[in-house]
Structures are given as structure tokens and as C-alpha cells.
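Dear support,

Our group has been running a series of protein-ligand predictions, and this particular one with NAP is the one our PI (initials K.S.) wants archived with full inputs and outputs. We had some confusion internally about which version of the output was final, so please treat the block below as the authoritative record. The input we submitted was:
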Amino acid sequence: MNVATGTLDGRTALVTGGSRGIGAATAARLAAEGCAVALTYSASPDRAGKVVRGIEEAGGTAVALRADAADPGAVTAAVDDAAAALGSLDVLVNNAGVFPYGDISELTLEDYEATMAVHVRAVFVASRAALRHMGEGGRIISIGSSLVERVPAPGISLYAMSKAALVGFTKGLARDVGPRGITVSVVHPGSTDTEMNPATGEHADEERALTALGRYGRAEEIAATVAHLAGPGGAYITGTSITVDGGVTA
Ligand code: NAP
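Confirmed final output from the archive:
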């Protein structure tokens, strides 16, 4: 299944939230291109183990680490453990995410804290930790959302706010680490068929209708963009956002 194409031969990566969905597809794609991969999970050890076995059976190298993205100490430890297990850390993919949904009158302070902990604080903490291990050619890639650019329905304010923070962080960090030859970018998926947003879900037809292509994206299509950014093709892409949404924001 995973035939190594070699564009990431000898590289190492950590993908947060790699037990399913976009994170799992990204871990598999990076591994297929020759990258040794660590992935984190919080609630799904069996799923994470399955992703690791799939990569190993295809001839790749992978390790799963339990790390709740809401726990800064666990995030830092996972970055250091990944670097130790893989021997280096060239690529960090900040992917772990949740989907808080509701009118502002229903959303609680706890919802706010929980969302910001995973979508914003964990990205800050993981990036800071990863930069201690990265050298020239390092890559920090975060998974945002097309909802940063267009919010086509109610109930998504908290999610959109948390993902929008990644845009500013990406621009600022790109300036900080550019002199070290490290790039920073954010990928904004549109409706992508995962457990978070199944193509058979309650609002799926409305989401499909918003796209130019008339369909959901596949996790592998987001992973392909992340792999491009992680590889030689991403060397001059930094401080910017790349939207992969089938034309929702067109
Ligand atoms: P998913 O299928 O629900 O997968 C979420 C992943 O994040 C799982 O591996 C989960 O692992 C992990 N995760 C959740 N909370 C975590 C925590 N506290 N600590 C560590 N890991 C945690 O979602 P997805 O659709 O692949 O989403 C991946 C990213 O893409 C998210 O950032 C999401 O916001 C973004 N995104 C998705 C879509 C879409 O339409 N699907 C669109 C735009 C952006 P465990 O089960 O082990 O906790």
C-alpha cells in the first residue's frame, strides 16, 4: 500500500492526534515518503496502534505516544520522547483537534478553555519544544480550518476563533525561526470526511453544496499538502496559509 517515494527519506516527524482522520492519513503519507513518524493520541490507543502497525507493515517506522494535548507537560514530554525515539525531529504537524459547536449562549467557559487548550496552547507548547530539536530545514505545520476564512453557518464561533489564532502564530513564528532555515505554515482543510465531520453527517449535504467541486475532501488529500510542505517542495513556503477546501472559500 505505502510505496516509499523517498522525498522524505531520513527525515523524522511528530504528528499530534494521529490515531485517526487527517492525523492518521498524514502519518501514513509522511511514512510512505520515507519519514520516520511519531504520533500522539489521547483517547484511542487501539486506533493509534493500528496506524503504527499499518505503517510498519508497509515498511515504514512509527511509534505511538499517549499525550493529551490539553496537558502542556504531556505535550512537551511527547515532543522530547519523539525526538529521542526517532533520533531527531525535523517536522512537527500540529493536528489534534476537537469540534465545539453551539450558539454563544450555550457555550461555556469550560468549552472555551478546553478548545483553546487543544487548538492554541498545545500548538504553542509543542512548537516551542520542537524548536529545541530542529535545525536547518525544520518544518512546523499546523492544521487550521477553512472556517477561518468563511463561516457559512451559526454555531461555529468558538471553533473559528481558536483556529484563527493559528494564522497569527504562523506568521509571527515564521519571522522568529526563518533565520534558522525553519519554515512555519498552516493548512486550512474544508469539509473533510472523518469522524469529526462524516460525509454522511446531519449537515453533510449543506457542506457539500458550499464546495465548488460538490464533494467532501478526503483525509489523504489534506495529508498530500502537508507532505508537500514537509518535503523539498515546501522549502520556500513560510508564514502563510494554504487552503484545501474544494472551493468553499472561492
Ligand atoms: P478526528 O477524526 O476527530 O480526529 C481527531 C484526532 O485528534 C484524533 O486522532 C484524536 O485522538 C486527536 N485528539 C483529539 N483531542 C485530543 C487531545 N486532547 N489530545 C491528543 N489528541 C487529541 O478529526 P479530523 O477531522 O481528523 O481533524 C483533524 C484536524 O483537522 C483537527 O485539528 C480539526 O479541527 C481539523 N479540521 C478538520 C476538518 C474536517 O472537516 N474533518 C475541517 C477543518 C479542519 P484521540 O481519539 O486519541 O483523542
